[in-house]
Each structure stands twice: as structure tokens, then as C-alpha cells.
Amino acid sequence: MKLFDVYPLYEVTPIKGNDMVVTDNKGQDYLDFYGGHGVISIGHSHPYYVKSVEKQLEAIGFYSNAVQNPLQVQLAEKLGKMSGYSDFSLFLCNSGAEANENALKLASFHTNKNKVIAFENSFHGRTSAAVSVTDNPKIIAPINSCNPVTILPLNNSELVEKALSKGDVCAVIIEGIQGVGGLDEGTTAFFQDLRTLCNKYNVILIADEIQSGYGRSGKFFAHQYHTIQPDIISVAKGMGNGFPVGGILISPKLKASYGLLGTTFGGNHLACAASIAVLEVIENEKLLDNVNEVSAYFIEKAKQIPQVKKIKGKGLMLGLEFDFEVAELRKQLIYNYHIFTGGASNKNLLRILPPMTISKEHVDVFFDALIKILKSTNFKS
Ligand SMILES: Cc1ncc(COP(=O)(O)O)c(C=O)c1O
């Protein structure tokens, strides 16, 4: 059997990871400025994380959600405390799309309505409801298009109110900072308007923090820059540092009942051990401080490069916008300078999502390479 060929692949075969460095099967090291789509939060194969997962696997790796699992309780308590959401509840699942799927389902159950408002350039995943609120018709199959969704521009509160006032909307879903779309974000005024309008029209406000959460923005959640509280927060990616795990943090105003949500694998022992270890490392190594310090250093260096037209994002979720498409630049970074970076729907944007353990020395290596490439190649807009 061959693989279903849906991914265009770089000619690199990583077989080992250590903090910021990924090593391929030929022994070549690469600096990871992309963290495998923003997944690697505490660095590749962090020794504390590896030990925690190993120890858990030796004890018990899995049992279903029909029995007590104190690790889930421990994870919920730790996550609540570190994120500032101790009064919320946690439902665990296995991926980002699944987190949003459950968030949207819960909003619909709670309000008994079915329409969703999402925003231009959004990406919320590839499952049924999650893909229907994603602004990319190419990945929406006919079977997904039955969910009623209105896509609106970011930062236009008037249009949001017009849509909500019709009375059929169950949820507004917004990324803390847009990832795949290209690092655009709502203003503080817009996030605050969304909060007010959702309260006014009995609509659930969902913050998708799957990419922007877990400290990546420099706060635990990116929406915390705007001093609002959503009703549901979806998380995944950095939560497990590569172990597949996701979840939703749910406001006390949404009530649980047996059977309302469920999953076989979600919240299994191994996923909990990985997720607890990630939180412990973020706390013990003060990684949020590092995110803010290295981010400021990175932005300062980026400002000195005339070809960089715009610097977008926050913390270590950054985008450098050029006036040319970055595909060739990314190829040169990976093949000539051995640095992984990311792209976005905005083809002129270079996406930067390194592990939160990154140092200023790594940033220097990146900018040395970038400057050399920009000097040697005439990129055309
Ligand atoms: C903001 C956001 N939401 C949801 C998802 C979907 O997550 P997953 O690929 O784990 O299903 C992604 C993935 O890139 C994302 O960036």
C-alpha cells in the first residue's frame, strides 16, 4: 500500500529532535523556526517531558473514559491555574479540529440555534463543523457545506451585530491571532465588541487558541491581550508538544450532562502525562518570559531589514511580510541554511513559530541567513 498523496513534501527526513534542533537521516542539523506547525512548545524531546511520558507508559498508557482518571483532574487544575481560568471546566479530545467541533456543538446545544459567524482568512480545522467555519472553499466538501455559516471581515462590529440580531446564531468563532491565514488579528475594541454583542444576543463566543495559545503569544492566551473572557476556548498544538491532544475550556454558564460530549481516546493517561509535563516545563523554565524577551529581540532585528514590509503577530507567533512570494526564500532557508520556517495563505508571509525555548543566538543565526539570501537573490514582487 502507498500513502494517500495529500502533502507536498520537502526532501528532508527528520529522525531526531533536541530542543531547537532537528536532525535528519544524513546527520544534518536544522534549526526549527516552525515547530512542526506550531506544535513544539517546550522544545523537541525535552528530557523532563520524555521521562514523564515514559514513566506513564510503563504504568498505564490508556483506559477509557468509563473509569476514574486522576491525571485528567490534575491537568484541569494545573491548566486552570496557569491560564487564569480556574472556574472553567475542561473537556479533552485529540486534535484541534476536534476541539473546535466540540466547541461548536456545545454552543449549538446550549443556545438551540445552528448558525455560526466566522471571519475572513480563518482556519479552524478540517472536520465537518470546523471546516465549514474555515474561510477556504477548496477544503470544504459538499457534505460539509450544509452547516449555515456567515464569514465576515475582521474588525467590523457593525456587520457582526447585523448578523447576530437575526437571532439564529449560536456561536462566533475567532482565532486569538490568525495562524494559517497569515497573522491578522482582531483589535482590542473588536474583541470587546464581540463579547458585548454575544452577551446581548445569547451567542457563545469561542476563542480558537489552538495555535496562539499555551504561551505562544507571550500571554497564556492571545485573547488575554484584550481583557475579555470567551465562553469556550479551544486548545491543541502546543498543549502536548507533539503528543496528539486537544481540549476545550468551558465557561460555568454551559452545563454538562452525561453523554453530551464523548470520545474514546480523549484525555487518555499518556496524553495527560504529556500535557501536565508541558505545563510544568512552561512554569518551571519561565517560558513566557523567554517568549517575550526573544520576541522583542526578533522584532528589533526584523525592523532593520528593509525588505520586510510588515511584522505581524505577537510573542513567538510572528509573520514577516515581504512584497514577493516567500516560497523560494523558504526553500533557500531550508536547503542552503538548514532552517525550517512556515508559509501562510498570504503567500508573501514568512511564518515564525519556534519552540518557546529559543534563544537570542538562534535568532542571530536566522537573521544572518535571511540577510545573506536577500543579498544574493533578486526576489520579484
Ligand atoms: C487556529 C487553528 N485551529 C484549528 C486547527 C486544526 O488543528 P488540527 O490540525 O490539530 O486539527 C489549526 C491547525 O493548524 C489551527 O491553526
From TrEMBL:
SUPFAM superfamilies: PLP-dependent transferases (SSF53383). GO terms for molecular function: identical protein binding; pyridoxal phosphate binding; transaminase activity. It holds the Pfam family Aminotran_3. This is Aspartate aminotransferase family protein. The keyword Iron-sulfur does not apply. Keywords: Aminotransferase, Pyridoxal phosphate, Transferase. The keyword Transferase applies. Its cofactor is pyridoxal 5'-phosphate. InterPro entries: Aminotrans_3, Aminotrans_3_PPA_site, Class-III_PLP-dep_AT, PyrdxlP-dep_Trfase, PyrdxlP-dep_Trfase_major, PyrdxlP-dep_Trfase_small. Gene3D superfamilies: Aspartate Aminotransferase, domain 1 (3.90.1150.10), Type I PLP-dependent aspartate aminotransferase-like (Major domain) (3.40.640.10). The lineage of its organism: Bacteria, Pseudomonadati, Bacteroidota, Flavobacteriia, Flavobacteriales. Belongs to the class-III pyridoxal-phosphate-dependent aminotransferase family.
